[in-house]
Amino acid sequence: QVQLVQSGAEVKKPGSSVRVSCKASGGTFSNYVINWVRQAPGQGLEWMGRIIPLFGAPNYAQTFEGRVTFTADESTSTAYMALSSLRSEDTAVYFCATTYDYSNIHLDYWGQGTLVTVSS
Amino acid sequence: SYVLTQPPSVSVAPGKTARITCGGNNIGSKGAHWYQQKPGQAPVLLIYYDSDRPSGIPERFSGSNSGNTATLTISRVEAGDEADYYCQVWDSSGDHPDVVFGGGTKLTVL
């Protein structure tokens, strides 16, 4: 059973950056497809992209390209999501979620979520 | 980009059957997945590849997918099923593969 534990809530100023961590246990970290999904208050789910530690290269949703960076540290089984140039609309709960299925991504395991609040 | 359309809300009496639809162009050719999300919690995978259930998900939850509509069916609805439900596909048809979510459906148990 895979467990994902995310870092705590953050409050950021507009224009700044945030980094959220997602530590995994159980399973083989390098084989995961690690996805990042966000949910603005009262809104639906929005996929931000994915990274497969085994291959290294991330894929970003077009909405976030240029502003988001995914990394994965295999030595600590931890994935990171960094989002820059924050604006109020980035206020959301950010989730990491994983699967082993490379061919048709569905999200088997989820972290508890990290609330990022962007406010001046 | 690929779009999935869900009804914003569905209401059902306890013990009855709820059906939540997810419309998308030729969605029947993709594998549809479904999630349940209760307030303040992370989503939980309910159904994957149209009709498969992860271990621990009750048989009351089932799925189907054909043509332009995928459907999540919840039999013998209980008060604890009140939640938001999201469909999702993996759209690999273009240059930019994407996970696509529907807008979500709020299930109310009367």
Word description of this protein:
The complex is a heterodimer of chains A (120) and B (110). Chain A has 120 residues and is mainly β. Chain A has no helices and eleven strands. In chain A, strands 2, 4, 5, 6, 9, 10 and 11 form a seven-stranded mixed sheet that branches. In chain A, strands 1-3-8-7 form a four-stranded antiparallel sheet, with no helix packed on it. In chain A, β4 (33-39) and β5 (46-51) form a beta hairpin. The mean pLDDT of chain A is 95. In chain B, 0% of the residues lie in helices and 45% in strands. Chain B contains no helices and nine strands. In chain B, the strands form two sheets. In chain B, strands 1, 3, 4, 7, 8 and 9 form a six-stranded mixed sheet that branches. In chain B, strands 2-6-5 form a three-stranded antiparallel sheet, with no helix packed on it. Chain B is globular. The A-B interface holds A 35, 37, 44-47, 50, 59, 61-62, 95, 97, 104-108, 110-113 and B 1, 30-31, 33, 35, 37, 42-45, 48-49, 54, 86, 88, 90, 96-104.
